[in-house]
Design brief:
The chain is mainly beta. It has a domain of 44 residues. Helices cover 6% and strands 30% of the residues.
């Protein structure tokens, strides 16, 4: 599986990645997913922190 960079801040990412249902870095949904920190999205006067997960290939990555 190729490593891909996470989306830059402000760029749309899939709901599955933000809801912890897919690896944040590559989108994998099969296999074991590990807690990988969180990312924050911001809007007009609000912020939301999303817990993210990583597949075995990306479990050592650090969320932006």
């Amino acid at each position: 599986m190729a490593r891909t960079a996470p989306p830059p801040p402000g760029v749309h990412t899939s709901p599955a990645r933000l809801h912890g249902e897919a690896c944040y870095w590559c989108g994998a949904v099969f296999g074991t997913l590990h807690p990988a920190g969180s990312v924050t999205t911001r809007g007009d006067g609000w912020t939301r922190e999303w817990p993210i997960v990583a597949c075995g290939d990306h479990s050592g990555e650090v969320a932006p």
